[in-house]
């Protein structure tokens, strides 16, 4: 039996280096959460990892959506809605955890793994194909100020987590 929940494969690459690196980090965080549950590290350790995963996901979504705007991706609104729906579900889960109405479980991990796998293989790959075909991005000059600020604050975490 594999020691990890989600085995990364280059088949998940969407063709945008930063996005692919962030996806690998999301997979690593999911695997850390899996290990914490499997090894009975306790609810606080699991919650800390879940919170890191949620924060990193928000940052990742912000970057993806900015690249979609820059490249005039026609599927931006639908893709953004998918992101918002997941964030709402995670926020609701965090509220339930805070109120003792839920616990972090293997079912949660399975849901996150399936969502991420499907989202990368379908929605993100469609965007990656569009971006590679239609964008000659020489820098970050067109990115929103919010993304620039977030990237500057979080860059160390993205690279060294």
From TrEMBL:
CDD domains: Hemerythrin. SUPFAM superfamilies: Hemerythrin-like (SSF47188). Pfam families: Hemerythrin. InterPro entries: Haemerythrin_Fe_BS, Hemerythrin, Hemerythrin-like, Hemerythrin-like_sf, Hemerythrin_metal-bd. Residues 76-103 form a coiled coil. The keyword Hydrolase does not apply. Residues 15-127 form the Hemerythrin-like domain. Keywords: Coiled coil, Iron, Metal-binding, Oxygen transport, Transport. Gene3D superfamilies: Hemerythrin-like. PANTHER family: BACTERIOHEMERYTHRIN. Belongs to the hemerythrin family. This is Bacteriohemerythrin.
